[in-house]
Amino acid sequence: MKMKLAVLAASIALPFAAGSALAADKPQFRCQPGETYYMNVMVSGIEYWQPVFEMFKQAAEQLGCKAEYSGTPEYDVTKQLTSFEQILPRQPKGILLHPMNADPFIEPIQRAHDAGIPVVTFAADSPNSARVAYVTSDNRREGAAAADAIAKAMGGKGEYAVLENPGQGNHDLRVTSFIERMKEAHPDMKLVGRSVTNQDANKAYQSVLSLAQANPNLGAVFMPEATSAIGAAQAAVELNKGIKVMTVDVNEKVLDLIKAGDMFGAINPNQGVQGYMGFMALFLAAHPELIDPMNDYKRTGANPFALPVIDNGFAIVTRDNADDFRWPAYKARREKAAQN
């Protein structure tokens, strides 16, 4: 009886063993030793990038890959281009890129493509380049959501202004869609001023003071990024006229201002998903042997993994949920998880 059981067990195990051997010959969702992916940004010290890179790194570690952070600390497209080009000789497996401006990156991305290095853009795009995917929250939806929130808080009637950074694609889309939404859905909301601040808190501070002086009934100010928001909120507090300041993106200072009631609110993209999906898009683009979609990629020679847009979503940040978006607390949580 024992002999029969042993034979039966062996006969059951053999097909599974054969299956395992066959599976071992197939491509696996793992990196080869030393396989490295880079993330490249401008103004590299701002807090926004940290949760993006945290989950970029998390995805890399789960697949046995290496992740590196790179860029320039300055708001300078030429210096970011240099930092991007310095990555190419290192032969990375892929680059997750936030291009400060779209067109200057077309040629460098093409060179990366020609060298077999896939590039995925995130949060800002270079749509006419050879990048294989773009991960972002929908900037138009962000601007529209901000407009709806402010208009609702003001009862659908009043005056507003915008601060902007012309030339940075994702910021331009946020401002344009904010204004368009006000015109279409809230016709009693009147745009009374626009000011270029280029992510400078001091310029934003002075701009709001000037806008309020020229427009005594100014009720709200919108800007597409967090640095200007800090200066704008300071001016609004000093003016003490109830001006509602709303921005896109958060950092600790912005969250403190929202919690204190000194800033109306913010739209915050889901940065972690940006980083995680950005890495996964790069990995698949770098390993086209893993996928075989039903399209014409074999005929055209295109990368079989290419997605025009991956939407990472966003949240509206208020006093009620502001603490959920604090980077130090999230970082501590991630470090604790890494120790377990």
TrEMBL record:
Gene3D superfamilies: 3.40.50.2300. Residues 1-23 form the signal peptide. Residues 42-283 form the Periplasmic binding protein domain. GO terms for cellular component: outer membrane-bounded periplasmic space. Belongs to the bacterial solute-binding protein 2 family. Its main location: periplasm. InterPro entries: Bact_Solute-Bind_Prot2 (IPR050555), Peripla_BP_I (IPR028082), SBP_2_dom (IPR025997). This is Periplasmic binding protein domain-containing protein. It is found in: Periplasm. SUPFAM superfamilies: Periplasmic binding protein-like I. The keyword Signal applies. GO terms for molecular function: carbohydrate binding. It comes from the Bacteria. The keyword Magnesium does not apply. Keywords: Signal.
